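Worked example

This section walks through a single chain of length 215. The input is the sequence exactly as stored; nothing has been trimmed or padded.
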Amino acid sequence: MNLQSFILNDINRVGKVWKMNPPNNDIISENDVWVPESALDVLIALLYGKGKTDSFGEPIEGITRLDKLMFLLSKNAYFKEIVNKGYVFEPDNFGPFAPELFDDIEALRYENIIEIISSREPLSISEIAAEEVNVSPEEDADPSDSFTVNEYRLTGEGMQVGALIWNGLSDKQKKAIYDIKKTWQNKSLNSLLHYVYNRYPETTEKSKIKDRYIH
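Given that input, the structure is written out below as tokens.
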């Protein structure tokens, strides 16, 4: 088949992004692969992989959740070398944080590989403290109130890129993404933060909310 071509572009210090030419064929077969080489590739694979819905392309809600899932992949034996080449997770206000990840997200949005959709979801007050929301809660806010949370998902073009990268992963790498995504998409943000903070306490030294999670 004639695959659409992907032109590699350097955008400042962002790793690698693709600019797509109009495709000649929208169908990606299992024989079409893009061998992952960068943390950005792994980010796209994470967004492409299955999670709690068992469907490819399951979106991830909230920048904090996305950041922490990439952090967990940076600790995974099958991804740590490639992820840590691109993302440097350091202690920050809400635990491990990699500014390069946010650069990649913006670059991929600019290239129409991902889209960010705002939705109103109920969050607990502690989750609000750890999530970037567009509405600031009052001190006496009801924990069941809804706040605007960003949802990160692949576009149609992004799904094609994701399929190519997914096909280039080993079976063990695919299982690692599936296990991490399914486990933590099924749990609350509080549960995810509790796990990260207690499993990797060295990343929480600057956190403003560590007292809520480290026991």
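What to look for: Residues 6-212 form one domain.
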